[in-house]
Amino acid sequence: MSKLPVHEYFHSWQGEGLHMGRSACFIRLFGCPLHCPWCDSAGTWHPDYVPDKVERLESEELVRWASSKKPEFVVITGGEPAIHDLTDLTRQLHETGLPVHLETSGAFALKGEFDWITLSPKRAQAALPEVIAKASEQKWIIESPQDLDYWWQQLESQLSTPTVWLHPEWSKRRDPQILTAISEWIKAKGAPFRAGWQLHKLFRADELDPGIAKPAPLGGNPELGY
């Protein structure tokens, strides 16, 4: 029986996107080849933050845990979860009646069945057209005002989702230039663009669960070379 490398798994609520505020179990898998300079889950890949031991759990264990929490759905995230074969995990979650959401960069082919896909494209590797087409919503991380034009040029012809969230990169969430740029963009273009936020961080909701890993945000720390 294959096992998945799990960085953390915890019960909280979805703090982003159209499902914001709903009870959810999160399974954060280990590993990501994209290495974003502002990653807020650097413990899944960065050598300065990788834990001494990464749990490898069978799907049955994860499904049993999630079912016991009785969430509205389960979110599989990372790192980049799509580097793993999620077929068995998603099948078993569905068999228990739990909807499955995926958060992905879209750079890797999907293996598994998902009820909702949040696509958050990254500069390091372009999202695959077939993943873009399957996305339920997009989330653009804006770390400079120029990012809006960049992602518009990259994805304008592929905006098939009804909603595109514009999130200020969290370490710059108080930067007036970025906040103003997002506001002006939405006023100028309207749908499908909407202002996004990470509401769970304001509540510190994830920290209430004992399964949460020690936070490891990079936030463009120049001392780490990012």
Structure commentary:
Helices cover 24% and strands 22% of the residues. It is an alpha/beta fold. The protein contains 6 helices and 9 strands, in the order βββαβαββαβαβαβα. It has helices spanning 59-69, 87-95, 129-134, 146-155, 176-189, 199-203, and strands spanning 3-13, 23-29, 55-58, 73-77, 100-104, 116-119, 137-142, 164-168, 193-195. Strands 3-1-2-4-5-6-7-8-9 form a 9-stranded mixed sheet. α1 packs parallel to α2. α4 (146-155) links the parallel β7 and β8. It is globular and about 50 Å long. The chain has a domain at 3-137 and 204-224: Alpha-Beta Barrel (TIM Barrel).
Features of the shown structure:
226 residues, alpha/beta, globular
What's this, in brief?
The protein has helices at residues 59-69, 87-95, 129-134, 146-155, 176-189, 199-203; strands at residues 3-13, 23-29, 55-58, 73-77, 100-104, 116-119, 137-142, 164-168, 193-195. By secondary structure, the protein is of the alpha/beta class. α1 (59-69) runs parallel beside α2 (87-95).
Map the helices and strands:
Elements: E1 3-13, E2 23-29, E3 55-58, H1 59-69, E4 73-77, H2 87-95, E5 100-104, E6 116-119, H3 129-134, E7 137-142, H4 146-155, E8 164-168, H5 176-189, E9 193-195, H6 199-203
Parallel strand pairs: 2-4, 4-5, 5-6, 6-7, 7-8, 8-9
Antiparallel strand pairs: 1-2, 1-3
Spatial order of the strands in the main sheet? 3-1-2-4-5-6-7-8-9
User: Count of DSSP helices?
Assistant: 6
Level of helix content? 10-25%
Q: What is the string of SSEs from the N terminus onward?
A: EEEHEHEEHEHEHEH
Give the overall shape.
globular
| CATH homologous superfamily placement of the domain at 3-137 and 204-224 | Aldolase class I
| Average pLDDT number | 94
